[in-house]
Each structure stands twice: as C-alpha cells, then as structure tokens.
Design goal:
Strands 9-8-7-10-11 form a five-stranded mixed sheet, sandwiched between helices. Helix 5 runs antiparallel to helix 6 and helix 6 runs parallel beside helix 8. The chain has eleven helices and 14 strands. The longest helix is centred in the first third of the chain and has 29 residues. It is of the alpha+beta class. It binds zinc ion. The site of zinc ion has 8 residues, from loops.
C-alpha cells in the first residue's frame, strides 16, 4: 500500500497541473509514472483514484467558495496509503481450505510478474448472511485492517426491500433504480407535449405545469420508508441556463432540459431530507458504458436502451445497468461521496 500510495501521489502531481479526464488515462499518460513492478492495470487503478481525489478536492473548494462567497483555493490532495480500491481485474477471493485461522485468500495478481500477494481474510459474520442472499460484486476496497466487499441482493417478486438505491436519470424512464424498478415512463411524452406547444401560449404553461407535477409525483413514488440511502449522479456545473454536460447525452440535455433534471434532483433531495434518507452524489464518468458485471468500459457496450458488454456478454437495460454502477461507485469508487460517508455503510450494509 505504501508503493501504491507513491504511485497515486505521482499521478496526483500530474493531474494537479494538467487537468485530465478518465478517458485520458491511456498508456501514454500512465507511462509517465514509472514503477519497477506495477503493471499497467494497477497503474490505471492508481491513476483513477488519483483523478477522483483531484476532482473531489476541486469540487470541494468550489462548494466551499460558494458557501463562503469568496474564492477558496483547492488544496492538493494526498493519498496516505490507507485504502486501495481494486477490481477483479487485479484480485480474486478464494477459499483457504487448509487454514483454521482464516477463511479466504485475497490474491492480488497483476502487481508485477515477480510479485504475488495473498492476503489472509477472516470473514465477518455479516459476510455469510449477505453471501447467502446475494451475489458478491467484483470489487474490493482494501484498508489497512480490513477489506470491504459489496453484495448485490436479489429481492425476488416482493416489493424490493433495500436500504441503498442508485438512481440513473434518463429520458426513457425518469428514474431507473438499482433495484430494477423504473419509474416515470411517460416523461418523454410529456416533454414532447411541452416542446410542441407554442412559446408563450397558455397551452405551454399548462404543459410545463403538468410536467413539473409529474416529476414531483414520481419523486414521491421513490422515497419509501425502507430506503436509507439514495445515490445519484453528480451533475457538474449546472446553473440556470447552462446545459448539462458530462455523461448526459446530447439527447438528454436537449430533450429533458437541464432545468427539469435540476428540478427532479432537488425534489428528490428534499424528500430524502424529510424522510431522513441519506442523499449522495457520485461522479458520473462512464457509468453508462461500464459493465456492472465485469467492470469493462467501452462505448460499444451501450446501444441506445440496450447494454451488451463487449467483454463478458452481460446483457441489461442500459439505464438499469447505469443505476447499479452509480450505487456501486458510491461503495467502491475512490473518494466519491461514499468516502465521506463511511458510517452509513456500516449501518446499512452491516
Ligand atoms: Zn462485462
């Protein structure tokens, strides 16, 4: 982890001077940090973590500036080597049959050709409970004293009883929930009505009102008493009159309109507050084109409403796939909102 820390900090040095995006993390850039045995894959994970930290620091300063109404200069982040978020591309969990003192090996591959690290793991009793009910997700967050894992739980035909929900905002469904539920399927129709009405007409005013009511109504449909955490995408730089950038497609920003998305998220956040539900945002990069099964990132994974992983063949509704990535990113994504909200994990996930 000390080695990892150095590599992350080297990338932070680069990103702090030249602002990069996740899409820029290719060989050329990765090669600018040399390490005697870290593989490209591991360096990529380190770079990703560095990028998240830099982005979080900048965003934090922005928010602080807004609140203080004066410019607050962002502080360059430092990785202290106390956490490491890894995917199954790098590590795997296997049974440790011959041991009586621990239950699993967490084997780190791809550290380098000559180095193989096996971490002995003693399973927490909650692990068995969730392992029986759900499926272990392919990501591990390694801390100095423990490893955090994530489970996906299928709730069957009953109304989904789940504590944590990731929500993807879209046009085909206003909200796609990581529980598999989609709501607000009439959104597109209502928006089209607004667009067809003449500017300044009574019909337009009425259509906008109907749309607003519809959005508010659907927000109410989501916040149920059994939810304790809602995770949405962080929408960058949205102020009055600006169009949404980032993950939201051209289609979405022009069709839904930044105003509607903002209104929707504000309603949702307010309802969360009223119902004492935690509301968190994560960075949206690649959530729509990442396979939630194997983690493979490719634009070709997504074709309109259909998600088909080019690596493992995972087939899904594109928005539902995204919503699961959003939730997953909260738990595993380095330095997203989840980083500040550790206690929530303990309370809800066990
Ligand atoms: Zn896949």
């Amino acid at each position: 982890m000390d080695e990892y820390k150095h590599v992350v900090n080297s990338y932070i040095d680069i990103f702090w001077v030249e602002r990069c995006r996740e899409a820029d993390l290719k060989k050329e850039l990765l090669d600018r940090v040399q390490h005697p045995y870290f593989t490209q894959r591991l360096k990529q994970q380190a770079a990703r973590e560095a990028l998240s930290m830099v982005n979080a620091a900048i965003e934090q300063a922005k928010a602080a500036s807004k609140e203080a109404e004066r410019e607050i200069v962002p502080v360059k982040p430092t990785h202290y080597g106390n956490r490491m978020a890894l995917s199954t591309a790098i590590c795997s969990l296997t049974e440790a049959k011959q041991s009586k003192t621990f239950d699993r090996w967490l084997s780190l591959r791809s550290i380098g050709d000559k180095i193989k690290i096996d971490i002995p793991i003693k399973l927490h009793r909650q692990f068995h409970k969730w392992n029986e009910r759900g499926r272990l997700m392919g990501s591990f967050v390694i801390f100095r004293n423990y490893v955090q894992v994530t489970f996906e739980i299928q709730t069957g035909e009953k109304k989904p009883i789940t504590n944590c929900v990731g929500i993807d905002t879209g046009i085909n469904a206003l909200a796609s929930l990581s529980t598999g539920e989609q709501i607000g399927l009439e959104l597109k129709t209502l928006i089209n009505i607004v667009r067809r009405r003449k500017k300044g007409s009574k019909g337009k005013t009425r259509a906008i009102k109907t749309l607003k009511d519809y959005i508010a109504l659907n927000a109410k449909r989501i916040v149920m008493s059994d939810i304790s955490l809602i995770v949405v995408e962080r929408l960058k730089g949205i102020t009055h009159g600006t169009k949404l950038k980032g993950r939201l497609s051209k289609n979405m920003s022009s069709v839904i309109g930044s105003w509607n998305v903002r209104y929707w998220l504000t309603r949702l956040e307010m309802l969360c507050e009223e119902n004492r539900v935690s509301f968190r945002r994560v960075w949206p990069e690649n959530t729509s084109i990442t396979c939630r099964q194997c983690g493979y990132v490719d634009k070709k994974n997504r074709n309109g409403e259909i998600f088909l992983c080019q690596s493992c063949g995972h087939h899904d509704n594109a928005d539902l796939n995204a919503s699961r990535n959003i939730l997953n990113r909260f738990f595993t994504g380095p330095y997203g909102a989840g980083y500040e909200a550790g206690p929530i994990l303990l309370n809800t996930i066990g």
